[in-house]
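FAQ: What does a ligand-bound record look like?

Like this one, built around magnesium ion:
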Amino acid sequence: MHLLEGKGVTIHFGGLAAVSDVDFYLDKGEVVGLIGPNGAGKTTLFNLVSGALKPNPGEILFKGKKINRMPAYKICRMGIARTFQTVKIFGNMPVVDNVKIGLLFGAHGKIKKDTNAEVKNLLEFVGLDDVANTPARDLTLAHQKRIEVARALATQPEILLLDEIMAGLNPTELVEAMELVKKIQKKGVTVVMIEHVMKAIMGICDRITVLDYGKKIAEGTPQEITTNKKVIEVYLGESDA
Amino acid sequence: MNLSNINWKQLSKTFAAPLVILLALALMPFYGWEYGVSLFSHFLIYIILTVSWVMFSGATGYISLATAAFYGIGIYSAALLHPATGFSLPLIAVIIVSAAASFLVAFIVGAITLRLKGIYFAMFTFGLVLLLFQVINYVETSILGQRGRFVALESNETIYYYLLGIFVVTMIVTFFIKNTKYGLALRSIGENEDAAAHSGVNVTMVKVLIFAVSAALMSTVGVVMATKTIYVDASTAFNPMMSFSPALMAIFGGMANLYGPAVGAVIFSYVQEILQTGNLNNYYMLIFGSILIATILYMPQGLMGLIQNLWNRLKGAKRALTRG
Ligand SMILES: Nc1ncnc2c1ncn2[C@@H]1O[C@H](COP(=O)(O)OP(=O)(O)OP(=O)(O)O)[C@@H](O)[C@H]1O
Ligand SMILES: [Mg+2]
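The answer part, i.e. the structure of the complex:
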């Protein structure tokens, strides 16, 4: 049994099939890349897994249990956490409280130790310990994305969905972010990352899935993907790839 | 909560001032200032309503205009269970029944409407006031064939002490919510509902529960006030001003801490009191409106926010002086 499995996952917005009959799976410990041109349906697929949207038709199984009718907060508590492409932080709250929310509500009894110490650990883990008491909105975008990572990790997930946490980072920040993902994998968390930064995807991922116009067009190791005809077509057809 | 973790020094600092104020308020009827008792009752009504309003709407940003509905439920609870003639429950029992009824109504209404955002939520909650008015008005006049009801009168002192008690309960509830994880959740909902939900917060449950708790508190004020008015009917019970006032008082005072709403409530209700005794009631709305527009334009953080800013600037200037 896979850790996570999607069968025929589909969603329409008006006439548009944003995600169309997509099958996918995830095994424990992997880092999987989810790529594809703008508007391919990557974020929408995250929304479907995390419970922000419900597939119709299609089903999503987490450890064999159907989750595609569950509300987002329950899916989070079961062990699937995410970050958002356009950051969604608690701007007027200090960084610590942003993370604390994840710990108090997501982890929900999974943490028996001191929550303050655990928040501190997480902030150190993502490198935000020196801005712990700053209101989240005063941080740079790179740091705000790390708040989201820390908040998601605070919920003690088994699966972490990262939506473009490397977009808009400078080269140093990019290397740091790649290190961070590797550290998360070492913790035993299974990661799916949406990314346009090919260097990061190719460098970290064990497996890559490619979406185009809502359909899965390829799946395989980084080597297989770079030599896949359909993928090359899609990306060469795109001027900004 | 671990008792050994409590910082007693911090705690006494937090509670010293409120306790002194509370003691001074508790002795009010002994000052021989009869007008003071009724004036401070007036203040307490609006402080309780405003603080309860802020408890939910201030934190989440959902502007509720249902205050008059819950206040009115309180008034009608008193009219039915604490009438001038016939079987009458003790006031404290009426308060409990009314709080439970309001909690239930708010819970149901909240579960239905708290999915609505922004102006739609505000409109729906105001609709609740109009709906209750219409229904009760219809039942009273067309079915029971009466206009209003008489409530058993209570003395000014009794009313005052009840309000003071409700005030204390309101403050304790507010303090409790603020200092538990539910306060944090409520704030996170106000900041970003999606992010809260995806961090494990049962957004709907937290919103509905706190909305219902604030509604329960609002209705208890109605119960007590009904014993002052003696005669109540649907239009006095469901007066739309009771929906607008708390919201406007909170915006005027500022919602960053508990003092803002309380100060806003005291100032506005005092103005209202003066105009009422001077028979200038019609000017109230005009003044109210003008001040509110000025507040939104020139001090978006409210009066307490403005004072805080001035204070910070003063401190900054002092520091600059001593440094230079
Ligand atoms: N809530 C929504 N309502 C209507 N259309 C939507 C909604 N969300 C996404 N879409 C549309 O669905 C399609 C897929 O969007 P999605 O955000 O999933 O793309 P993406 O692969 O994440 O793209 P990008 O790389 O630009 O982030 C787009 O055409 C988008 O406009
Ligand atoms: Mg996207």
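Follow-up question: can I read anything off the structure? Yes, for example: The domain at 32-323 of chain B is CATH 1.10.3470 (ABC transporter involved in vitamin B12 uptake, BtuC).
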